């Protein structure tokens, strides 16, 4: 049976095996992330080599967010670990 892209083992081509990506590396193994979405709480456990959700090991929070929602999400934004960038309004031109 082939694993779906979201469920492929941690340490794929973009990440070295056993090393979390830089933004996620600030999360300590043993921590839990809880996201309320779709009428339920989704619990993710941070591990040294990835993120565990519903018994499966994922290489990124983005993969878990896509698994939960069915659409692409930045994992840090989805789990509330980073704020969306905002840009100042462009000045209006007169005339």
Automatic annotation (TrEMBL):
Per its record, how is this protein called by name? DUF2924 domain-containing protein
Per the UniProt record, the source organism is Sphingomonas taxi
Q: Which domain of life is it from?
A: Bacteria
